[in-house]
Amino acid sequence: MAINLASKYSGKIAEKFTKESFVAGNASKEYDFAGVRSISVYTPVTVDLNDYKRSGKDRFGETIEMEDTVQEMELTQDKGFSISIDRGNNVDQMNIKGAGRMLNLQIREKVVPFMDRYTIEKWSKDAGQIAELSAVPTADTIVGSIFDGATALDNALVPDADRYMYLPSAYYNMLRLSKEFLAVDNLAEKSLTKGLVGMVADMKVIKVPDSYFPDGLYFMITHKRSVLNPNKIKTMRILSDVQGIDGNVLEGRTYFDAFVVGAKADGVYSAVADGKQTALPVIGLSEASATITAVSGVTFYYTVDGTDPRYSKSAQVYSSAVTLTSGQTMKAYGKKAGEFPSGVSEKTYTA
């Protein structure tokens, strides 16, 4: 890209209109990635209730050792940048490229938007609940679709507090005209989350630029404790007197990722376009042999230990028939590039 030297009358650089992060601060802080690249999250597995017996042994029911599931979370995004500001170019442009100002510009225009787009896509595709809408939302249907999402969280026993709904600007313009929408000007809360424009269905509405949403996502609901966006390294610095360069060098590095907590995955709901979610896997059983019907472009992941393959450390890529023991369950889901992952299918073998 060419360096355009300022003319005598050019007063400043035109800055793009940018915003700070829409997701930072809206995620759980329960897990600590400090000093490590990945963490394992252990979730205890509870047991069903029994009928209490007033005589005999085992009156409370059979004693079952409490098991747990393990979800491995590993940071994958390690990004950096390096920009030079030559002293001669800066002088010819009347010193309008102040190093500190340019570093802040880089962060606002490139770093934060990249991280937000990645996080929204990752959360939405790892959601515990993905719902295909039969039609594109309209001014008449958008509120009903949002309340359907809120109801899905209610039925999954997700707490009412700390729910956020991320809505692209195009649909916000529909929502804001509805009587169910409470504009932020009417809220008592004045310490505002970035992008917060109001509330609907007891959820904070975060208006996000349309370009931040992956193809096919209409809106997303998250509960704060269901999502993570750890950022281990945030190096941003200005170097002067760099060998071979007469001027300043701006450097930055961010080491981050985004996750959905498997044990609380039903606290994340994605409303997506019809046909944008991979179809449920078809599991077949022939005696003890479990097979998954192949689908072009789809990779299937499965578990046989009862855990959810979308989040379990024990999930494996399916390649051939799997032999089950009596009482064992195969759970599987599918992923295809450009689509949202499928739900989970399961089959249990009983001898």
UniProtKB/TrEMBL annotation:
Q: Which InterPro entries match?
A: Fn3_assoc_repeat (IPR026876)
> Known Pfam families for this protein?
Fn3_assoc
Q: What is this protein called?
A: FN3 associated domain-containing protein
- Say which species the protein is native to: Christensenella massiliensis
